[in-house]
Every structure is written in C-alpha cells, then in structure tokens.
C-alpha cells in the first residue's frame, strides 16, 4: 500500500510517501525557520501563506523521490488537528482535492498521534501497548498507547508546554528562534546546579506538570541581572533550566509506566531531541528496568513520515475523511480520525 502524507500544522511544509505504514520511501520537509526567525517566533499568517506556496511542490518532490506515480497512491493522509488553524487548512484542503482527484481515501491524522508513530518508524518491531511522552512546542503529555488508535492522556502540563519554555528561554538569552537546539548546545558547557530553579508539582495529580513558574523564574533572573548591570553565566543558566525541565518530565513518565505496568517507554516531539532529556531518560529507564525508545532527531520535529505512518493505522481502523473534513486548532488525542 502506498500512502502520501501531508503535514502543515505549524511552520514546516512536509510531504512523505510510505509503503505499508513503516517503510519510508520519501520524507520531504520545507522549513520556514529562517523566515520566522526575523520575528522571534512563528507568525501564523506568514506560515499559512508559505504553506500555500510550497505544499504542491513538496508533494511532487515526495512522489519523485519515492519513484511513485500519483496514480499508484492508495490513500492520502493529512494532519487535521491540532495546530495553527490557517496552516492546517492549507494542508487539509490540498489533501482533500488530491484524494478527490485520485478517487482514493482521505485519512485524517491527529498531529500528536503522528509524533508517537515516529517511534514505529524508528523501531519496526515496536507494537502497542507502551507509554509515550510527547514533548513539543505546544504539548507536554504522557500518553498511554493501548493500541495503534486507542490512546489516553495520563498526565500533562496545566499551562505552558516544555517546548514553549525552551523557546522563551532561548529568546531571552539572545539565542533567537528556533532556540531549542541552540540552548541544548549552550547548556553542555554549564553548571546545572548554579541557578536554583523551580520544579512545580500539581496537588493530587502526580503525573501533571506546570512550566509557567519555571519560565517566569528564568525571565526574572535575566531581567533582574540586566537591571543591576550584572553578568549572567548563560551556559550555566541554560544547563540549570534544562535540568529543571528534565527533572519534571522524566520521573513522572517512569512512575506512570510502573503504575500502568508498561514495559516500554517512548518519547516523541521536537523537545525529544534534547541531549540532556535523552540521557536522563536512558539512565532512569535502565534503573527502572524499562525498555526505552528514542527516535532519531530527524523524526522528532514535525515531518510527514510520522503522519503517514499513523495514517496507515488509522486507515486500517476505518478512519475516513470526506469533502466536509475540517481543521481544528485543538482536538483531544483520544478522538478518532473522524470529525
């Protein structure tokens, strides 16, 4: 089965061709990072306009790289939620038109389910059930993957996502956008104990998280130092911040896996590429006797291969979208692929 996948949930215009769900024949990504770096973050209107300009070209490139003709496609999958609504609408409408023209099924895919599916590509032997921590720019959630299309949120951030805090911290340190990878590199030369930063807990919700206090603490440190004319040890502040995020994510995920009886833990999303978080998970999972799955950094960020992989399993489960398929800025991961 050949499936073309389209991903336009934020500022990457991506298209991929997958064979039988897990074999990636092509995975093309056009990144708008340089464009949005001028503004210090993603500008939704600019992102949408660039998706319009590039989505058709990326789909053609994905088919060319895969060596697959449009007429050989068996289905078209597309991210329909969650994300920037204007950006999502570009991908959804392109996919609807293509599926209609080719007379093949249209498969709606939840973006977070796609991130989880990146682990199926990284490890072809992986099968549910397992526990997955999804950490991206807009989401921080511990998800129990009971089956390919049966998932439940065990815990998550009550306010800011970890990825958002990474971007804001990088920005206040003058690293620009996107700052996650730059903050990672900067932190490796610092003392992660130099700046005491909060690790928030949520009463009566052991698997929930809060990052707004951490973000505020970093902003106050930087602003107070500037007002007093004091210099900051930026590598150590970056290391202290990253340690605080990791100390919030790792123990909760490991504890949830133990309580649920899951023997395999996976992480996914853009923040899953962070070296400190990856190493802390490796150590903690080994101590707990759990199997850990870490997708390569190339599959952590937004891409269409992960959407195509999950789209394959949504297709097998009977999920279909029609001409009335809409896009949604928010949508629970427990929702099926239908509206």
Describe the global form. globular
Beta fraction of the residues? 15-25%
Determine the fraction of residues in helical runs and give it as a percent range: 40-55%
Return the string of H and E elements.
EEEHHEHEHEEEHHHHEHEH
What does this structure look like?
53% of the residues are buried. The chain has helices at residues 33-37, 44-66, 85-102, 111-122, 162-172, 180-187, 212-228, 234-260, 275-288, 304-316; strands at 2-7, 12-19, 23-31, 75-81, 106-110, 130-135, 140-147, 150-156, 264-268, 291-293. The protein starts with a strand and ends in a 23-residue tail after the last helix. The chain has a 5-stranded mixed beta sheet with strand order 3-2-1-4-5, with helices on both faces. Strands 8-7-6-9-10 form a 5-stranded mixed beta sheet, with helices on both faces. With 339 residues, the protein is of the alpha/beta class. The model has no long low-confidence stretch (mean pLDDT 95). The chain folds into 2 domains: 2-116 and 302-316, ATPase, nucleotide binding domain (Nucleotidyltransferase, domain 5), CATH 3.30.420.40; 127-299, ATPase, nucleotide binding domain (Nucleotidyltransferase, domain 5).
């Amino acid at each position: 089965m050949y499936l073309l996948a389209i991903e336009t949930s934020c500022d990457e215009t991506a298209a991929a061709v997958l064979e039988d769900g897990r074999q990636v024949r092509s995975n093309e990504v056009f990144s708008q990072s340089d464009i949005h770096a001028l503004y210090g973050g993603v500008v939704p209107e600019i992102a949408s306009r660039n998706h319009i300009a590039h989505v058709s070209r990326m789909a053609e490139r994905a088919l060319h790289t895969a060596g697959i003709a449009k007429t050989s496609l068996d289905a078209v999958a597309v991210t329909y939620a969650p994300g920037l609504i204007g950006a999502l609408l570009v991908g959804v409408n392109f996919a609807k038109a293509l599926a209609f023209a080719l007379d093949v099924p249209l498969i709606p895919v939840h973006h977070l389910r796609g991130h989880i599916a990146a682990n199926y590509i990284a490890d072809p032997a992986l099968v549910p059930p397992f526990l997955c921590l999804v950490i991206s720019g807009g989401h921080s959630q511990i998800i129990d993957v009971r089956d390919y299309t049966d998932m439940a949120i065990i815990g998550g951030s009550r306010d800011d996502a970890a990825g958002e805090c990474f971007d804001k911290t990088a920005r206040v340190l003058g690293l620009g956008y996107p700052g996650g990878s730059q903050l990672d590199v900067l932190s490796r030369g610092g003392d992660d104990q130099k700046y005491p930063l909060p690790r928030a807990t949520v009463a009566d919700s052991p698997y929930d998280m809060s990052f707004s206090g951490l973000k505020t603490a970093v902003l106050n440190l930087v602003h107070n130092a500037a007002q007093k004319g004091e210099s900051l040890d930026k590598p150590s502040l970056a290391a202290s911040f990253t340690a605080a995020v990791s100390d919030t994510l790792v123990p909760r995920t490991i504890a949830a896996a133990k309580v649920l009886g899951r023997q395999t833990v996976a992480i996914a999303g853009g923040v899953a590429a962070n070296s400190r978080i990856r190493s802390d998970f490796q150590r903690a999972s080994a101590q707990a006797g759990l199997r850990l799955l870490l997708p390569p950094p190339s599959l952590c960020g937004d891409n269409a291969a992960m959407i195509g992989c999950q789209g394959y399993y949504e297709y097998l489960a009977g999920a279909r979208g029609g001409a009335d398929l809409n896009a949604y800025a928010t949508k629970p991961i427990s929702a099926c692929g239908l509206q």
